Amino acid sequence: MRKIKIYRDTILIFLRGLLMGTADVIPGVSGGTMALITGIYQRLVHAISQINANFLIAALKGDFARSKEELKKWDFNLFIPLLAGIGLAVLTMSKIMTVMLTVYTAPTFAFFFGLILASAGFVYKHVDELNLKNIVFLLIGLVFAIIFVGLNPIQANHTLPIIFLSGMVAICAMILPGISGAFLLLLLNQYEYMLAALNQLKFADIFTFCLGALIGILSFSRILNYLLEHHKSVTMAFLVGLMVGTLRLPYEKITTTMDSFIPVIIAGIVGFILVIVLEKQFEKHHLHWEA
Domain extents for the chain? Predict the structure, then answer.
């Protein structure tokens, strides 16, 4: 019975990874949002914040027993299936998103609009109460996102140092509900380039981006873990504001590329309902863990 539960949890984590990876290649949608909706967010942030080089330091000193103990602190039951799902989704969806954003621009962004709107409602459930402090942080997030989305893309080049920095910045956004790492890549003029790099398997660019992402997420996860443990309500209120503010991006894309009203409405409703369905389904299979 225990083995069946382990297998079931592994499959569910893999499915969460697929959803997170899919969201991470979509401008305007965050992989962190998918992690939150599917009930794995806090475990993920905590697990990442526990990663350090102590096991390597102990091994270099010849203390292999301590090195093994340090590695046991890593949540491999989470990381292995989750990263497998994210990797598969990113490689697959990078090709699909290139077509969707080019051929079906307005309905695709309408779908994103529905996803983000429903996700904002879900994150709002994690705000304890609508007091003055939470309202202030919500408004700060809203204003910041509206201004941020309105920024013009930076005409950065595609050298390895720039790609490395882009990976660091984008991964911090990808783990935050409400901020799209893919959108940050758009602003940094790296989104289409990295999609092409994935499709063409440019290993030097991919490795450099992943290295930057690894360093970025290990640093940022500690800050985020602290905020979630000590200031969860105001953090969630800020994220709700961010998510509502980022709706400016899909709205502008819809209004400037729309040919027909009906496909846009249908796509938006589908995106909205999809989040609700995912929330209900994964609510039945929340994974219990020890912090």
Answer: 2-283
